[in-house]
Amino acid sequence: MKAFVVEKYGDQAGMRAVEAPDPQVGADDVLVKIHAAGVNPLDMKIRDGGLKAILPYRLPLVLGNDLAGTVVRVGSSVDRFAVGDEVYARPDKGRIGTFAELIAVRQDDLAPKPATLTMAEAASLPLVALTAWQALVERARVQPGQKVFIHAGAGGLGSIAVQLAKALGAYVATTASTAKVDLVRGLGADVVIDYRTQDFEKVLDGYDVVLDSLGGDNLAKSLRVLKPGGMAISVAGPPDPDFARELGANPILRLAMAALSFRTRRNARRHGAKYSFLFMKASGDQLRELTPLIDTGRIRPVVDRVFPFEETLQAMEYVEKGRAKAGKVVVAMT
């Protein structure tokens, strides 16, 4: 099969297109012919070796973390899918590889593709939709009437998180550039802060939840808009001890993660709030729960551009250089 692989960590120069062996299909696996794959900042972090400590992949590695496609074979124990089914997924972190013609995915990580979406639209969703679900539903347990602040509402994660928060009945604030204010209002945001002209810390107060995808100073300032008992959940901030335990990290790595997040956790406590780092997990069941929201139009994908599969490296460069105007970038088989 054709695939894009990381041969050495570093940058785009360490990646190339190759002819790779077809995936082996275990008893609980589903072999999927990939029609489209989403491009995520996570792909670049893995390619550059920035996550080697927590994701120790063996090279060469087929990259890619989102897919939509068609089932072409099932393992002997598979009972949820059949050949010909249209599916979408974020494969388990240990079995990524969606920048390829084929992938073997555990059946528990797959879900039927939403009927209302094209393959490209469906491929844009799994990683960001699962991240939003695990942050807002699983971890924060957002309730109707609560106030939720989501950074970068026009981004891949932000555009889905804004819609999910509204579907949960929350009052939603977000940030966006001047050109994207109307877009995020259209997604349901109640308050849109133009980060080019406004400081969100001076506008917002008393929020129950913050979802941070930027880290750094934005995370530090976000703690100050939370009310006592509130929670800041970050996918870009420092990993915390809970994540280290969840990962099964060795004692040295646990200490390192605790040290990295110590200041953030201390500042959160000073505001009577809690800080939580999130690294999303694959889950076909959670995608199934999201599907009715998608098929009824309460959550709609935002796709910036679709590249042909042969231009996967160009698609990654497009994302890495911040050229995407809103939502996700996708590569599609032709």
Q: Superfamily at the CATH H level of the largest domain?
A: Medium-chain alcohol dehydrogenases, catalytic domain
CATH class of the largest domain: Alpha Beta
> Structural class, from helix and strand content?
alpha/beta
What is the number of beta strands?
Answer: 16
Helical amount among residues, as a percent range?
25-40%
CATH topology label of the largest domain? Quinone Oxidoreductase, Chain A, domain 1
Overall average residue pLDDT: 96
Main pleated sheet = 7 strands, mixed
Listing every helix as H and every strand as E from the N terminus to the C terminus, the arrangement reads: EEEHEEEEEHHEHEHEHEHEHHEHEHE
List segments where confidence is low: pLDDT < 50 over at least 5 consecutive residues. none
Structural domain tally: 2
* Tally of contiguous helical segments: 11
User: What is Rg?
Assistant: 19 Å
Q: What is the CA–CA distance across the termini?
A: 14 Å
Note the main attributes of this structure.
single chain; 334 residues; alpha/beta; Quinone Oxidoreductase, Chain A, domain 1; Rossmann fold; 2 domains; 7-stranded mixed beta sheet; 6-stranded parallel beta sheet; 16 strands; 31% helix; 26% strand; globular; NAD(P)-bd_dom_sf; oxidoreductase activity; NADPH:quinone oxidoreductase; ADH-like_N; GroES-like_sf
Explain this structure.
The structure is a single chain. This protein has about 325 residues and is an alpha/beta fold. It has 2 domains: about 1-125 and about 300-330, Medium-chain alcohol dehydrogenases, catalytic domain (Quinone Oxidoreductase, Chain A, domain 1, Alpha-Beta Complex); about 125-275, Rossmann fold (3-Layer(aba) Sandwich), CATH 3.40.50.720. It has 11 helices and 16 strands. Strands 3, 5, 6, 7, 8, 15 and 16 form a 7-stranded mixed β-sheet that branches. Strands 11-10-9-12-13-14 form a 6-stranded parallel β-sheet, with helices on both faces. A 3-stranded antiparallel β-sheet has the order 2-1-4, with no helix packed on it. It starts with a strand and ends with a strand. This is NADPH:quinone oxidoreductase. GO terms for molecular function: oxidoreductase activity.
